[in-house]
Amino acid sequence: MKFNYADEAFETEFEFGKLTISGDEEKGFRPFQLMVSSIAVCGGSVLRKVLVKQRMEVSGLQIEAEVTRDPERANRLTEIRLHYIIKGEQLVESKVAKAVELASKNCPMAQTVIDCVNIEETFEIRKN
User: What is the rounded distance in angstroms from the CA atom of residue 108 to the CA atom of residue 75?
Assistant: First the structure.
């Protein structure tokens, strides 16, 4: 990866397209937003795969993320709370709980920061 600085932002190109990163939300995505997004989406993707392997049909998956930062320590991330809203019929709560636990253990992004950032995961099941 190569990042080029111009107009108060860094840019890089990926196969999908250009990514602009800046400390100023008007110029690009903020680094902490990308980190939280990576952890949330990685966890959600792994969760969906685990649910499919458990033969549970998921018609929708939404992730709500809340972040706590410590202004005393360079505004570092201290906690990320992920709440999965899983839609489908015949979803078994105990199996979903196990799937959430497995997803957390198998998400590379969460495992990368697990010793530095507290990650809390909850879920709710909604019928279609």
Answer: 23
3-state secondary structure of 13: strand
At 66-83, the pLDDT tens digits run: 999 999 999 999 999 999
Cβ atoms < 10 Å from Cβ of 110:
22
- Pairwise CA distance, residues 16 & 19, whole Å: 9
Among the listed residues 28, 37, 38, 34, the one whose alpha carbon sits nearest the alpha carbon of residue 4: 28
Residue 84: its H or E element: strand 76-87
CB within 8 A of 122, min separation 6: which ones? Answer: 81, 82, 83, 84
CB 12 within 8 A of CB 18: yes
Distance of alpha carbon 65 from alpha carbon 60, whole angstroms: 17
Q: pTM value?
A: 0.90
As a whole number of Å, the end-to-end CA separation of the chain is: 41
